[in-house]
Specification:
The chain is built from 14 helices and 15 strands. It is an alpha/beta fold. The chain folds into two domains: 194 residues, NAD(P)-binding Rossmann-like Domain (Rossmann fold); 174 residues, Rossmann fold (3-Layer(aba) Sandwich).
Amino acid sequence: MRIGVAREVKTREYRVALTPAGAHELTRQGHEVIVEEGAGLGSASADADYVAAGARVGTVDEVWEESELLLKVKEPIAEEYPRLRDELVLFTYLHIAADEPLTRALVASGITAIAYETVETADRRLPLLAPMSEVAGRLAPQMGAWALEKAQGGRGILLSGLPGVPPAKVVVLGGGVVGYNAALIAVGMQADVWVLDLSVDRMRELEVALHGRITLAQSSGLQVADAIVDADLLIGAVLVPGARAPKLVSREMLGALKPGSVLVDVAIDQGGCFETSRATTHDDPVYEVDGIVHYCVANMPGAVPITSTKGLTNVTLPYVQAIAGKGVEAAIADDRALAKGVNVARGHVVYEAVAEAHGMPFTPLEDVLPEVAA
């Protein structure tokens, strides 16, 4: 199979969808890999590294037009929409429940679009989202600490405090992969850490994993309102796979926060979990609403591309190998987790949460790809 690796064009996106090591594995198995010129530079992989691994370096036109399977990190942006076509399989992070224009462009093109973030195993794990959730979770306290500095508009408070000076209070909404990793780093930074989650079983797991060094509370509207009153840093870490994130903090609730407090919305790719959230970039990462600093960068892991690219290839490569080796229909039919990743196919929305988000018709995947039901 001809596998293309596109260069990311999103602002300050330095990741690439495949490392030279991954390209070597694919070419060794007899596949042709075409890497767009300069695609790996931001992740410290030169074109020559891909050539040495057996790949071919090509232009943007060659990569998009010649590939049967196209690998990206982030969703296509508007300038890339004309390159979408029905013979192509796109494998990338999509987050289209929060992006109606892209959803409609994918449908109109007839492409088969598989989203990393909705590949889901029988035990409800999200294996292709997990490494980037880990990165984003670990970055969240770090970026929150930066935004709390007075020069960035924050309160001017150190997360750890000092002997005789209390630490900052960090409230993490959601105890999943993002929430756990955010709490892990915030605890390491010696903050006073609270985690709110809906699942008592999950809270028991966090109690053990974090050695009782955090405060755990059942998430509810009243509990969220109570917990944020004296928070210095609030980290949004909630996830409904493939769907828009629920809004847990309204604009009215901002009035209860101390001026200069910081919100870091890790759920911004799915629309954000704060009412006042809007996507920002690494070039202009923060803005203020009612005296509260918001950090809502939509591609946080892009700030650490070497780590992120290696972590991403580690988990995506087995799925890429399956698609390349069997063909997309057979690979999907053989793996229900991969089938869950298909969001759009042959002009239809086949992921129900996406269809609901945009009021578009939903078609079961089995009706579009009969091979999957066979």
